[in-house]
Amino acid sequence: MEPIEFIRALRRRPRGGHGDRDLPILLVSDLTGLAREPEPRAVVSGAGDDVAGLVGKIARELHRSRTGERPLRFQLTTKALRVISFTPSPDGHDPEGEARRHLAAPGRTEFAPPEQGGGSALAKWQDFQTYGFATFSGSAILGAIATAGRVTSTLVYGVIAVVSGVAALAQLVFRVRDAPWYPRYRWFTRQPYLEAEGASLVGFTVSVAREAQETDRARLVVAALLEDLARAYRRPWWRRVGWARVTYPMVVLEDAHDPAGSGFLALVEQVRNRRGGHDPLLVVARASLGPPSGDAYTGFRSRMAWGRRADGDHFVELHPAGTHARPSPPGRTRRPWLAHPLLTWITGLALLAATVTVVALDRDLRCAQTWIRKEGGQCVGVINASGLTPDGFVHPNLREIVDSIDRRNVTVADQRSFVTFGVLGEFTLAGEHRRDSRLAGAFGELVGLWHLQMTVEKPSVRLLLVNAGDNFAHGERAAKLVADYARTDPTFAGVVGLGRSVEGVKRAVGVLDAAKIPMVITSATASDVGGTSRYAFRVAATNEREGALLARYVRRRLLAEVAAPKAVVVSDKGPGEVYSGDLARVVSEEFAKETGGSKPLHVDYTDPGQLTRAAGAACDAAPDVYFFTGRGPELPTFLNRLGTTTCGSPKGRLVVAGDDASKELADNPKLGQDTGMTLVYATFGERTAVPGAPEFVKIAEDLFRDRKMPLSVRPSGSNAAIGFAGGTLLHHAASQAKTPDAPVALGDVLYYLSTVREDRPLYSATGMLAYASGEPHDGVDKLVTVVNLENAERVHCGRARSQTKLEADELCLDLPGSSETATAGR
């Protein structure tokens, strides 16, 4: 065998299962052909250099080798060359500061290799293959795991992107890898080749400058070179590039007898004796050889095929075979296909595609349950019938209260006696809705019902969330699904919720009425929402009662001195909206009664973008009062537009709003004060009117004490009170209809709901709950409050507690929904 073929065999790295072989120092008499052998290789001469300079040349040449992978890095070698090149100033004032600046200074020593790799396009591409693909595939794997674990994969990718960006910025701006404190450089204070004081690299450098001999410094540099190579060729399971390096690096030393060359060979032998571990460097040096004595390299090969280096085998002389056979051309060892850099990219793309597919189909798959259907991109129906509510099924601001309800449901399900309520609401609101009364109302209603869950027993209550979608757009579908569910659950007692006067709620009531399921309607106040159903019982006062009180208060209290007051009613005529138009109708009719037939002017809008036009048209009429019956979040916009109209000063203008604006105005009592407007609004569940009622906003804050709750995302206190009252009413009927070990009869629940009358009322957070015989079940003496923000006046109409005697107020007499025994108060 020719020496060059034996060298090729030695450089061919064993497969991973066989481990790595230790390599000798080969002495040859002829270097012909070695300069054309596969890279990585370095052909160097020590002439004119010391050992450190020779090591710098070797590192530079190996770094520049093109192997198809990212270049070999020599961070320890570079830093070692910096360490031994440090010389403190003669005065010795601050040697550690000088050493720190010397170690961290940009650039490189005169014989050191580049610290950050080659600047060529190829080198940058290879770096990207290694780091970019690895980061991408790792991100894809984490995202896939997160998606499989029902964690929001978008959040995972966001965190990965932020962390990667910060790391890249630190690397580029602060050169983190060059910093003396970088963990890699702990090797210097722990290596056994040069004893020096100092617990850090800076202290170690100062100690080397003061005490180390030239031979010790050279040994340190050689040890750093071998350590860099050993680290580059490690094969942990997660490091692709280590498995892709299938050819050992080779150093071809042109003269083994010059001082630098012989010193380098001697130090390599010393370091290998001390370090004990494997290093992948094959050294081939030209030397003057004596006559051959047998096939020396054959014996070496037989002893070192797969094992450790034996004593006396550090140096091996290779003589020509004497056959003058032409050696075969150099070949290239193929890396394993699993270590190909594009495989990482392909894997990452596949995982990313799988993740995106799962994310896209996940809701569809989870929506495909017995009581859930996908409608308009939302999961509609009984969303927690199988246990916990899946991620993405409710608005993020409702997540915590829904989780609290789910946890309570688990506890209740283990009890012997419990009843189940369906809570029909809109839990997947589109957009941010930071100031949306729908979100505040849904949040408040759930807080009230959760509080009911936690406070009632015998029987306990399990709450099933029935999502009707954004704006109750799929209320009819949700009602059909909960009706189907009710037939399978013997504990089901009825539906509570239906909390807004919109078309979707009207259709849902029709479905539930046809299915003969008892309903407790919370805060839907329009008379034609549930008014004709014998199965529907309303908790809040109707628009007839609310609108009449507002008209009376404005005419008799605020405009009593005006002979013929003029009014404008601004209402929302958007698609599906029922509340605004119904309240506008009632206010218009009642104000006309109060003024002797003077009907207000009506100004309509269909979306918030038309409020500027609506405000201008209303202001042009120069009214004495503006009745705004739109939704609460639109009121501030209307006030701003009204304040900037050109029809006169806004000072002294009177603006009256419905109950939907109660949270907006309760959270912002000074709204409109800067322009001098007088704001009046109606509300239900006012705590000042119901002594001893729970403080639901405080209950929510205590429940979510770890989460800061700005005003815009707090639950509506009035909706919480109404939700609690609705749950109390349904629980009262269900507890009487429930018999041990028997299913709940929905007919019995309906009967006991109808027995809540004036002579046997219930009292809850919204005051008295009582219903007249026959339909509609709108209730009598429902508590409604008018609040004047200018003077803090409150007028309460309705019965709060049976033992409460309120001062009589003539505004409440003969108010729609009153009874002869009603207590009116102010």
Summary of the model, kept short:
The chain has 826 residues and is an alpha/beta fold. The chain is 41% helix and 12% strand.
Assembly status: single chain
Radius of gyration: 42 Å
Helix content: 40-55%
Output the structural class: alpha/beta
Proportion of beta-strand residues: 5-15%
Annotation, overall tally of beta strands: 21
- Overall pLDDT level: 81
Major sheet strand order = 6-7-9-8-10-11-12
Q: Could you say which overall geometry the principal axes of the C-alpha atoms support? A: elongated
DSSP summary: helix tally:
25
Largest sheet: 7 strands, mixed
Q: Uncertain spans, ≥5 residues at pLDDT below 50?
A: 108-119, 295-312, 323-327, 821-826
What distance separates the N and C termini?
Answer: 113 Å
